[in-house]
Structure formats: structure tokens, C-alpha cells
Amino acid sequence: MTDGCSLFATKLRAWRAHAGAHGRVTQEMLADMLGVSVDAIGKYERSLSFIRGDLEHRLSEALGWSHDEIVACREDWEARRAAPARGAYRLLDDEVVDAVYNGSWRDAALASIALAIEEFDALPEELAANERVFLPIYDAFRDHWAVVMRGDRMVAKWTLPFLNPEDEELFRTGRLIEADLSLERMRRPILPGTYFGYSPAVVIRRGHEAVGPLLLSSFVSFLETLARREVYLHGMGSISVSLGGAQICRDLGMTRLGTHCLDPGYELWELPGSAIPASIFGRRSPFLRRCYRDVFGS
């Protein structure tokens, strides 16, 4: 079986974090809802086991998961069992933060910013990752970024804050300057609606390409959590600053819009909401495919 986090584990933890009317649903509460032991929930969330087939219906009845979501989790689990181990990759979570960063999510955020600085050390100041701009954003929007660890080292990450309409226009015309951004200029997805997501960094360390599926699963889970709140992306944009970055954008199904004002080698990429059903995200999640088709058509 592969190491790292299964789709089932990722979705369960995300559901517990957002399903409570007055806060996080505990493992004990979830165990009671599914009619299993707390130990079983712990194993599910550590990717050590999958719910028994005769209990799968409870995921639908108690948690509201669709048939497609349950099948996707089962297929992911079966694929993991059949695949060779790829290394001890796991998503950054409270347990890892406690063990590696002494319980400080702020220190973890600083480390993730340092990862981007390390990987993109030749960028001009206007687009370079920096603590002044991004630490307040990471603090305020903890669900809008994810990191994959190997041991106590960060090896991959994604980030997706939401831009206001004025900054979305700057992005589309190649004039967005990250150094000018601030927490006050980010949109907060409190109410249902459509938003524009901007990714300042997708990082995969060289030699850790096998982490891709886990990084993708974490992003799909993020989009699914938003969709359950009727929050959708009418577009998702990024600026590639390297050949590898441009290839990631292509692999995600993004379309090249043009170039950035700072350097013609920096390219603008976008994935419209209407394209998500046919993208890698829609192929990975039948739930997202259905939701985005309902909202944007196909």
C-alpha cells in the first residue's frame, strides 16, 4: 500500500473540520454517527483502513456523501492497496504541526513561505514570496493552503487565496504585483457565490514528483469543501515563472492568457469554472464534476 493520506482520510478529516454547527466534529461524535469505534475512526483518518462495505451506506445516510464520492474513495483505497509504496509522504495537519513546529501553525506557515523562496530564489521582488504579504494571508485562510511533508521536511505545497475583482482584472492584464497584495485585499468566501482563486505558488521539490497525487487529492478536497457551502471558482489563475511551472499549468488543464508585464517569460494561466468538470479536478471528483456542471454548464 502507498504511504501518505488516502482520499477517504482526507475527506473524513475535512468533513469533521467543517460539519459541526458550533465547531469541529470530534472523532467520538463521528464514531457514534457511523456506528463504529473511535479506534476505527483513528485508523480511517491515518489511512490505515477503509470502512467496511456493509457500512458504506452510513457515509451517505449520516454524512450526506454522494454515491459518486463514496465510490471515488473506495477506488482510491483499492488503488493504494495495489500500488507499491512511494515514500512516507503525509499532509501537514495538527499532529504534524505539534511534532515538527511545536504546535505553531504560524511557524509552519513561515516554513512554507521559506519553501517557496528557496524554490524560486531568482524572482524579482514584485513576485517573490515574502512574509510581510503572505504570512497574514496564511494565518487568516488556513484552509486555503496545504503542504506535503516527508519526515520533518516540506516537499510540496499549494496556496489559493481569493482575489477581489480589481486584482482579478490586474491578473488578467498581466499587471498583478504580489508585493502590493495584503490581507485586506483578499475576498473571504463567507456567503455562497463565485470567486476568483489566485495561486501564487505550486511547489514540488525536485525528486519528489511522486507526491503529486497526494497534493492533488488535498486540493480536490478543498474544492469539495467549498462546493458543499455553494462556494465555487469562476476562475483559477496562476503565473508560471519556469518551464516546470508552465507544464504544471498545462497538466491541470489551464489555458495560457498571455505574459506578465515584468518579463515575457512569465506566463498567465487560467482555468475557468466552466472548464473544471473536464479538468483533472472533475475527473478526480464526480461530486465536483456534477456541481460545476450545474453551476456553469458543460
TrEMBL record:
Q: Which SUPFAM superfamilies match?
A: lambda repressor-like DNA-binding domains
Where are the annotated coiled coils located? none
Q: Which domain of life is it from?
A: Bacteria
The residues the entry assigns to the signal sequence are: none
What PROSITE patterns does the database record attribute to this sequence? HTH_CROC1
- Which residue numbers delimit the HTH cro/C1-type domain? 12-70
Entry-linked InterPro entries: Cro/C1-type_HTH (IPR001387), Lambda_DNA-bd_dom_sf (IPR010982)
Q: Which SMART domains match?
A: HTH_XRE
Query: What is the protein name for this chain?
Result: Helix-turn-helix domain-containing protein
